[in-house]
């Protein structure tokens, strides 16, 4: 497919050559290292000529029938298409149309290349028939109609482009809002979790402190019992026996009481639960659905347009 279909539009080689010249000097004289101001343009040779060369050009048998255009009139030359079409095989004026091949040709082509074709018409006659039959008008109407279709398609394309931009902005904003909502939600859950953790730790520490106090009291009692029994030799017999019986009875009571040490294991699944968020590989990709819809009889996704 051509990058720019406008390059396929027929153009006037004469006008193009005239405007592409970078100077206003005679081409024939320049070949002789001379500079003479151009006065005319030879349509057949595609060269600029000065006043003297124009004279010789008209006198020469080879160029006496060439059409000369004054450079002062170059702006009046039809830009759309040349008035004369040359045969691509023989570089002579094409005067016939081979209907079988839809190809312009010269007299020599008619006698050689197209001698077996069923219908070969004169170009002048064909042109008159195209105008009189309304064929040109019908084609022009079809072109205008298709141009309206293209204009509508272009408008729809611009509308689609705007819709894509707006939709993209909406999706981006929704994603950002959802992210912020998730962050706020997670922060809220984390705050509740940490408050609960603080309360539980405080309760456990209070129990451990109470257990520690109880153990300390019993340690002091055992130390006192040991000290009394250690000083037995210095104690009078009545007091010694009395202390013994008292300590024995109290010790039995103390050791007979159920006494449990506290074992604490603090753990939480919150971190593991939060880590599952990190295990998410990524968000789903944005999906774009593209449909190729033919416009008229041309599918612009694969069509090739050629002008011959």
Provide a descriptive summary of the structure in words.
- There is one protein chain.
- The strands form two sheets. Strands 2-1-3 form a three-stranded antiparallel beta sheet. Strands 5-4-6 form a three-stranded antiparallel beta sheet.
- 52% of the residues lie in helices and 6% in strands.
- It folds into three domains: 1-84, no CATH class; 85-133, no CATH class; 139-278.
- By secondary structure, it is mainly alpha-helical.
- Helix 6 (135-230) runs antiparallel to helix 7.
- Mean pLDDT is 82; it is low at 77-81 and 300-308.
- It is rod-shaped, with a radius of gyration of 54 Å.
- A hairpin with a 4-residue loop joins strand 1 (40-42) and strand 2 (47-49).
- It is built from eight helices and six strands.
Structural class by helix and strand composition? mainly alpha
Helical residue percent band: 40-55%
Q: Enumerate how many helices there are, as a single number.
A: 8
Strand order of the largest sheet: 2-1-3
Domains (count): 3
Q: What's the Cα radius of gyration? A: 54 Å
Calculate the mean pLDDT score and round it.
82
The description of the largest β-sheet is: 3 strands, antiparallel
Report the order of strands and helices: HHEEHEEEHEHHHH
Shape: rod-shaped
Q: What low-confidence regions span 5 or more consecutive residues with pLDDT below 50?
A: 77-81, 300-308
Topology, number of strands: 6
Q: What is the distance, rounded to the nearest whole angstrom, between the alpha carbons of the first and last residues?
A: 15 Å
Q: Per DSSP, what share of the residues sits in E-state strands of 2 or more residues?
A: 5-15%
Protein name: Transcription intermediary factor 1-beta-like
Domain B box-type: 21-71
Keywords: Metal-binding, Zinc, Zinc-finger
InterPro entries: TRIM45/56/19-like, Znf_B-box
């Amino acid at each position: 497919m051509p990058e720019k279909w406008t390059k396929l539009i027929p153009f006037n080689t004469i006008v193009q050559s005239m405007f592409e010249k970078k100077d206003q000097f005679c081409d024939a004289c320049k070949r002789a290292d001379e500079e003479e101001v151009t006065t005319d343009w030879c349509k057949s040779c595609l060269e600029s000529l000065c006043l003297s060369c124009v004279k010789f050009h008209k006198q020469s048998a080879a160029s006496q029938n060439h059409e000369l255009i004054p450079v002062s009139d170059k702006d009046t030359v039809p830009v759309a298409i040349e008035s004369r079409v040359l045969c691509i095989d023989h570089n002579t004026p094409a005067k016939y149309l081979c209907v079988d091949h839809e190809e312009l040709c010269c007299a020599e082509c008619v006698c050689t290349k197209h001698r077996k074709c069923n219908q070969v018409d004169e170009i002048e006659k064909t042109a008159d028939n195209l105008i009189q039959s309304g064929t040109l008008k019908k084609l022009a109407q079809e072109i205008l109609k298709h141009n309206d279709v293209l204009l509508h398609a272009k408008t729809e394309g611009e509308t689609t482009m705007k819709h894509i931009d707006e939709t993209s902005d909406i999706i981006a904003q929704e994603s950002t809002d959802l992210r912020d909502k998730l962050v706020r939600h997670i922060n809220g859950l984390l705050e509740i979790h940490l408050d609960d953790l603080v309360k539980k730790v405080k309760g456990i520490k209070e129990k451990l402190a109470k257990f520690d106090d109880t153990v300390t009291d019993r340690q002091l009692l055992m130390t006192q019992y040991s000290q009394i029994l250690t000083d037995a030799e210095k104690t009078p017999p009545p007091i010694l026996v009395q202390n013994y019986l008292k300590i024995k009875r109290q010790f039995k009571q103390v050791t007979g009481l159920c006494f449990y040490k506290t074992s604490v294991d603090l753990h939480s699944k919150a971190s593991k639960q939060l880590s599952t968020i990190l295990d998410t590989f990524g968000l789903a990709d944005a999906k774009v659905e593209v449909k190729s819809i033919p416009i008229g009889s041309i599918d612009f996704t694969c069509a090739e347009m050629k002008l011959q």
